[in-house]
UniProtKB/TrEMBL annotation:
Keywords: ATP-binding, Cell membrane, Ion transport, Iron, Iron transport, Membrane, Nucleotide-binding, Transport. The lineage of its organism: Bacteria, Bacillati, Actinomycetota, Actinomycetes, Micrococcales. PANTHER family: IRON(3+)-HYDROXAMATE IMPORT ATP-BINDING PROTEIN FHUC (PTHR42771). Residues 7-243 form the ABC transporter domain. This is Iron complex transport system ATP-binding protein. InterPro entries: AAA+_ATPase, ABC_transporter-like_ATP-bd, ABC_transporter-like_CS, P-loop_NTPase, Siderophore_ABC-ATPase. One of its GO terms (biological process) is iron ion transport. It is found in: Cell membrane. GO terms for molecular function: ATP binding; ATP hydrolysis activity. GO terms for cellular component: plasma membrane. It is a peripheral membrane protein.
Amino acid sequence: MTTDHQLTVDHLTLGYGDRTVVTDLQVDVPPGRITAIVGANACGKSTLLRSMSRLLAPRAGQVLLDGKDVHRMPAKQLARTLGLLPQSPVAPEGIAVADLVGRGRHPHQRILSRWSHDDDVAVAAALDATGTAELADRPVDELSGGQRQRVWIAMVLAQQTDLLLLDEPTTFLDVAHQVEVLDLLADLNAARGTTVVMVLHDLNLAARYADHLIALADGRVHAAGAPGDVLTEETVRAVFDLESRVIVDPTSGTPLMLPVGRHHAVARI
């Protein structure tokens, strides 16, 4: 099963105050695939994701979901199709883990409707998938950063949308939990055809888990396509101002970027 929802960024210009961050951006998100957005700090990755989820209104252009402007869609209607994990979410003080994850069910509930068996099942499945079931009764503000991040991901999973937007979902996680979360998203994509769009800092994890890479530089798309076509030494140099060697990962067969630091560059001369 693959979602057929079309998410398109059409000549989008974004900014804050007097500063323009993204200029005339054109992006087509492949439906039913995993897309990773990469780039240097302040290149517009999170700004783009905020506008795609209608948290930031465009100065020009549109974000279209199935041909409709997301900034004109009713919030609840959009939330049944598109879920968002922002970069630095804030939980209400004292809220328990299960209650926070349960808030992901809000788009599916009607006025005066009661909590249903389907809601229970969705929350339990999300807690189990993220390894947070044992934390269900604990206050969120007592958890470690990594535990909190997994709880937020559980909330988004409980929303059960066909599209997921995640801004740095591996923040605060150690390497083992980073891989667990990305495996979870890959499994969700494989099982349900969920379209996943995520901002990642780790180029090698992005290349390993994404079907489609978008490399941003100075608010514009420098390269987009399959990881093997995008993650090249030229792209790393242009986007990150970094010399590197790109080889084939012997485990996954995907591109593997090896940075060349100044010390090693001198040593090779």
